[in-house]
Amino acid sequence: MKAKTKLDSFNKFLSIVCVITFIALICVIAFTDGKQAEQPVEEGNNADVSVLDAEFEPGTYGGVTFNSVDDVVAYYVEAFNYTKTLTAPYTENGEAKTYYKLLADENLEVQNLLVEGKSNDMINKLVPGIMGSLFSGAPKGIPVAANRDPVYDYREDGPNGSQIDQKESHLTADDVLACNVKDNGDGTITISIQPKGVVLSMADQDAQGRFFNVLGDISGTVNQISVLSFSQGSIDDNFVVNYQGGTGVVKINTATKEIVEADYTMKVHIDVQHANVAVLKDKRASLDIVYTNHAPASDEFLLETRNITKG
């Protein structure tokens, strides 16, 4: 299936869910009995700091010498690019297909739903069911990726509507906040990377956009929600989408430079201020999105989501 223009279907889904969730949060809290738990915000909570368990140390890992962060990123990019040249036969709904050899699953969770700094038990219980009915993961290549088929692995929401090829990584050492390398002792190494935090990440245009499947510019979608307005300032002032703290952990066969296993965890904090929803005025709401990809996708995931089998 061809990737859609501007925003792929997943990213458009995310932006709509964000707005709907804010509206639901505000309405639920406004019309319930007000029994909410305070959620204090810790000082320094927005600092862009490493979440990795160890700092990078120059050395030789699995027979590969890494003298700098530049070396780590260059090796990751080379492995990513090579891995995305590899394809394998699959069967989808009885039809023969050729997809990436290494396919990833996807999962999305909405967490920490707050209005005016408070949570609500009712909406917290409803969200898992709502998300389950709206979001259904599908197999993709390892991020960044728009599709499981290399032919359609691109986006068309680049600068001035340009097309972005996602079969090659454009990550740079300057994009990386922290990284490390581990020798697994079995002919593989594990590289962990945390890209720098970015507000309103754009595909292939910043540290997060060169590493994750980001939302891109969702302000146009938000502006189309007729019941949502702002008591002061513009959407750019009041709808803040902060990507921070996400990581990618990849296992690489050093003999072939093929990625054999990977886990990507993208974290997004969305904060809306001065929101007006119908008769409700000047409200603030926030939530966290955790979007994960694991490769290789399990046989069960392939079968259940798109009726795909290997071979």
Description:
The chain is an alpha+beta fold. The chain is 22% helix and 35% strand. The two termini are 19 Å apart.
Quick overview of this protein structure:
With 311 residues, the chain is α+β, with helices and mostly antiparallel strands. 22% of the residues lie in helices and 35% in strands.
List the helices and strands and how they pair.
Layout: H1 9-31, E1 36-38, E2 59-61, E3 64-66, H2 69-83, E4 87-92, E5 95-100, E6 107-115, E7 118-120, H3 121-134, E8 154-155, E9 164-165, E10 176-183, E11 188-195, E12 198-199, H4 219-223, E13 228-230, H5 235-238, E14 239-243, E15 247-253, E16 258-277, E17 280-295, H6 299-306, E18 308-310
Antiparallel strand pairs: 1-7, 2-3, 4-5, 4-18, 6-17, 8-9, 10-11, 11-15, 12-14, 13-16, 14-16, 15-16, 16-17
Q: What are the main properties of this structure?
A:
about 300 residues; alpha+beta; 9-stranded antiparallel sheet; 3-stranded antiparallel sheet; 18 strands; disordered N terminus
Mean pLDDT: 83
Radius of gyration, taken over Cα atoms and rounded to an integer in Å? 21 Å
Compute the number of strand runs. 18
| Approximate shape | globular
The total of helices stands at: 6
